[in-house]
Amino acid sequence: MRVVKEFTKEEIRISVFSWNNKYLLKFELGMVEQTFKVPETDLVDENSLEGFLEGVFWEGVKKRFEEMHLSLRNQLEIS
Q1: What pLDDT, in 10s, does the model give residues 26-36?
Q2: How does 10-42 read in b/e, with b if 16+ C-beta sit within 10 Å?
Q3: Domain around 67
Q4: Nearest Cα to 13, choosing from 23, 4, 30?
Q5: Separation of alpha carbons 37 and 6, rounded Å
């Protein structure tokens, strides 16, 4: 697995890996993370990955983090 890029946007840590003809997009915030696998053939080049960091997809990532944190917090309160 090769690290393509690592950076932070809006407090979300983003790591991009190249592995097995796929890009792995890993988003981390607090105690949770999301990973997406994108076939390399679906993108023109590594710079095309920037499109995943804006618009509807990016807003979905942020909303999912809110849901994940709420779910984890609720479960920890029950335990």
Answers
A1: 999 999 999 99
A2: eebebbbbeeeeebbbebbbeeeeeeeeeeeee
A3: 2-78
A4: 30
A5: 16
